[in-house]
């Protein structure tokens, strides 16, 4: 297994050198030493390419140009160079399921140029209406009518993000060219946005049971597409690392994408473990996380991926997820313990661990007072749909828990104005009011901070191959614990994500085990305290 620890940057809210009020590439460069000190190996940067920014850059207008709000190509080249000097590698986000509607290709498609219409998915109306009843993931229908063409085009996300037609061979060539362009810039990896949606169905029919996703998720040709990218780009250099974002997939399908022998992707993000607070599998609902399902899913997926020699990305946070500490933790009574236990427990499993900016200092969800506070297009679109059936208060409560805006407040660097994120006098981005208490500056020199604990976990994972390569096993007698075994060594990782003590059913004798990591001062070998995480190790015969 590759030994990596990857840090995700959401550029607009990370750090700005300047005063425009939006993060930039120069800002990232100036924080490379911070990232090096954290101990990570690679940086995944969410899109910095030219975009009208309807969906924070996931609506790409030009795949090979840097958006001016982030800087220019020179800045990007300096970033790669400076990162390399520190032995850090850069992974960029590749959004090939759709483009922006402002992309040249789409403009020409709308202009009735057949060549470019074939880059996208245009369909005739059926009985004067949408070709199917499928829903967009951002709310509303996933079809947009173009009167001039008397056709609808498909957009699984917003109407400003038309879906591309992967069956088009000419377009496939373009994708390869774009990936090679970035390789030549020194980029060492790609995160492929919603890549299991690339392969669309032959027949478009109404979905009688769901929102349409069953028709276009994990489509017929998807593995061919991954192999094609692998042969033409990914396999050209062993430093390249790929991670595919696969949504609403099955275990059986997804493990094939990141199975070493299949030569498709190096790893995948899946999301079932972050849907355990969805009532009836509906994101836009409120429910306490079902810890039992979380645990069952970990056992099932970890075991299955291990048995099939496939690789999961390990993560609890990203730019689309509310902060895990606010979801699974207790930010009032056990803030430090929650942040550290969620991280250590999940990132010492088998797979490639990822950190999302700000989680390393325990950043939390925001406080929203009204529906009009939300800025994210997904929240706004879905709120509109929800208001058809729910009261304003109910919708507000759902958005508070589920909105992506929670992850998109500015990074809390220190306790000065704008939390040290930018020198602007007019910050338009979200800033969490707790920044004076929770920030990098106050934690960096404190050996007992969340940040220092993160560094310990990262170091442990990267320097001791027991935690990277060890066989993972789950105990029957004890939930929330697993072991990693390699040669003659064994580690046990145990946690408790409740705010009360839990008795341990495992027989672990105090004199046989060495404590490697603990987020409390002590450990009673019979019980585990609220949000405690403990790593024990011993030699075995
Ligand atoms: C997944 C990205 O992570 C998300 O932020 C974006 O809105 C959708 N894909 C559409 O690109």
TL;DR?
The protein is 28% helix and 15% strand. The protein has 541 residues and is of the alpha/beta class. It is globular.
Helix fraction bin: 25-40%
Count of distinct strands: 20
Provide a count of the helices.
17
The stretches of 5 or more residues where confidence is low (pLDDT under 50) are none
End-to-end CA span: 24 Å
Looking across the biggest beta sheet, what order are the strands in?
11-10-9-5-2-1-13-12
> Roughly how many Å is the radius of gyration?
23 Å
> Which CATH class of the domain at 469-539?
Mainly Beta
CATH names the topology of the domain at 469-539 as Immunoglobulin-like
Largest sheet report: 8 strands, parallel
Q: Compounds present?
A: 1-deoxynojirimycin
Strand percentage: 15-25%
CATH architecture call of the domain at 469-539: Sandwich
| Overall 3D shape | globular
**Alpha-beta content class:** alpha/beta
Mean pLDDT: 97
CATH superfamily of the domain at 469-539: Golgi alpha-mannosidase II
GO molecular function, one term: alpha-amylase activity
Family: Belongs to the glycosyl hydrolase 13 family.
Protein name: Trehalose-6-phosphate hydrolase
Keywords: Glycosidase, Hydrolase
Tell me what you see in this structure.
The protein is of the alpha/beta class. Among the domains are: 104-154, Oligo-1,6-glucosidase, domain 2 (Alpha-Beta Complex); 469-539, Golgi alpha-mannosidase II (Immunoglobulin-like), CATH 2.60.40.1180. Helix content is 28%, strand content 15%. It has 17 helices and 20 strands. The strands form five sheets. Strands 11-10-9-5-2-1-13-12 form an eight-stranded parallel sheet, covered by helices on one side. β10, α9 and β11 (267-269) form a beta-alpha-beta unit. α12 (335-347) packs parallel to α16. The longest helix has 17 residues, at 291-307. The model has no long low-confidence stretch (mean pLDDT 97). 1-deoxynojirimycin (NOJ) is lined by residues 55, 58, 95, 157, 193-194, 245, 319-320. InterPro entries: GH (IPR017853), GH13_cat_dom (IPR006047), Glyco_hydro_b (IPR013780), O16G_dom_2 (IPR045857). Keywords: Glycosidase, Hydrolase. This is Trehalose-6-phosphate hydrolase. It comes from Spiroplasma diminutum CUAS-1.
């Amino acid at each position: 297994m590759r030994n990596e620890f990857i840090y995700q940057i959401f550029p607009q809210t990370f750090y700005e050198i300047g005063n425009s009020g939006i993060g930039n590439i120069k800002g990232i460069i100036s924080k490379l030493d911070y990232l090096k000190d954290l101990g990570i190996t690679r940086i995944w940067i969410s899109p910095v390419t030219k975009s009208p920014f309807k969906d924070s850059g996931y609506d790409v207008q030009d795949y090979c140009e840097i958006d001016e709000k982030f800087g220019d190509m020179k800045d990007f080249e300096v970033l790669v160079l400076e990162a390399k000097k520190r032995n850090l590698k850069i992974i960029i986000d590749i959004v090939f399921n759709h483009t922006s509607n402002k992309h040249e290709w789409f403009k020409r498609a709308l202009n009735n140029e057949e060549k470019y219409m074939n880059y996208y998915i245009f369909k005739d109306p059926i009985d004067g209406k949408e070709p199917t009843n499928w829903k967009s993931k951002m709310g509303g229908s996933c079809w947009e009518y173009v009167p001039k063409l008397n056709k609808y085009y498909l957009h699984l996300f917003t109407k400003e993000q038309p879906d591309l037609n992967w069956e088009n061979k000419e377009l496939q060539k373009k994708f390869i060219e774009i990936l090679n362009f970035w390789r030549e810039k020194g980029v060492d990896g790609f995160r492929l946005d919603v890549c299991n949606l690339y392969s669309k169905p032959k027949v478009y029919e109404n979905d009688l049971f769901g929102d349409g996703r069953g028709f276009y998720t994990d489509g017929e040709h998807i593995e061919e597409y991954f192999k094609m990218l692998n042969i033409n780009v990914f396999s050209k250099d062993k430093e390249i690392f790929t991670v595919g974002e696969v949504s609403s997939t099955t275990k059986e399908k997804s493990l094939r994408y990141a199975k070493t022998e299949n030569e498709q992707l190096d790893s995948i993000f899946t999301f079932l473990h972050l849907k355990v607070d969805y009532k009836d599998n509906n994101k836009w609902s409120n429910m306490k996380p079902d810890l039992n399902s979380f645990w069952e899913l970990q056992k099932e997926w970890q075991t299955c991926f291990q048995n099939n020699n496939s690789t999961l990305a390990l993560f609890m946070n990203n730019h689309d997820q509310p902060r895990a500490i606010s979801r699974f933790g207790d930010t009032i009574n056990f803030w430090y313990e929650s942040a550290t236990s969620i991280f250590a427990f999940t990132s010492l499993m088998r797979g490639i661990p990822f950190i999302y900016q700000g989680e390393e200092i325990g950043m939390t969800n925001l406080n929203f007072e009204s529906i009009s506070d939300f800025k994210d297009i997904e929240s706004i679109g879905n709120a509109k749909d929800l208001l058809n059936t729910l009261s304003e208060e109910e919708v507000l409560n759902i958005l508070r828990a589920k909105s992506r805006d929670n992850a998109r407040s500015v990074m809390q660097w220190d306790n000065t104005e704008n939390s040290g994120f930018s020198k602007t006098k007019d910050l338009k981005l979200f800033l969490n009011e707790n920044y004076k208490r929770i920030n990098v500056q106050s934690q960096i020199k404190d050996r007992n901070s969340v940040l220092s604990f993160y560094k310990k976990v990262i170091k442990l994972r990267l320097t001791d191959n027991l935690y990277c390569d060890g066989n993972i096993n789950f105990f029957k007698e004890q939930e929330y614990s697993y072991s990693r075994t390699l040669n003659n060594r064994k580690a046990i990782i145990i946690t408790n994500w409740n705010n009360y003590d839990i008795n341990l059913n495992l027989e672990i004798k105090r004199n046989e085990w060495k404590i490697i990591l603990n987020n409390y001062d002590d450990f009673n070998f019979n019980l585990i305290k609220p949000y405690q995480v403990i790593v024990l190790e011993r030699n075995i015969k």
